[in-house]
Recover the amino acids of this structure.
């Protein structure tokens, strides 16, 4: 059975999509941008922006009864691949068990709200 996951602790969807969908013990999390969920302000500095994205993802995982150890696949979208090392180091720090999910990182021409980083995830519960 498909279930919509929504939390006020992550930015609300601004279009026709859900923060996440849970189905058959799988969790599909929409790409999160570095928006503060309380103020909707966009964090622009790349290290702070990456932390904000990861906090938004963590809030959705928590709402779904999961955590980063449940993540099996991620996609990182970067506006500038020169930010890769900074994003990679911060991203890795959230996976405490040392078992990293499968992942791809791609540079894109433009992201929503002209942000520098967006990350989506797939997890199991």
């Amino acid at each position: 059975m498909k279930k919509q996951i929504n939390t006020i602790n992550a930015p609300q969807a601004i279009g026709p999509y859900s923060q996440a969908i849970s189905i058959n013990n799988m969790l599909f999390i929409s790409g999160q941008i570095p928006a503060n969920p309380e103020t909707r302000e966009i964090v622009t500095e790349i290290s702070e922006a990456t932390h904000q994205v990861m906090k938004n993802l963590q809030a959705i995982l928590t709402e779904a009864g999961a955590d980063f150890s449940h993540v099996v696949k991620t996609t990182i979208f970067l506006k500038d691949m020169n930010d890769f090392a900074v994003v990679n180091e911060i991203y890795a720090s959230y996976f405490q068990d040392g078992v990293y999910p499968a992942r791809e990182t791609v540079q894109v021409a433009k992201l929503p709200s002209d942000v520098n980083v967006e990350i989506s995830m797939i997890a199991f519960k």
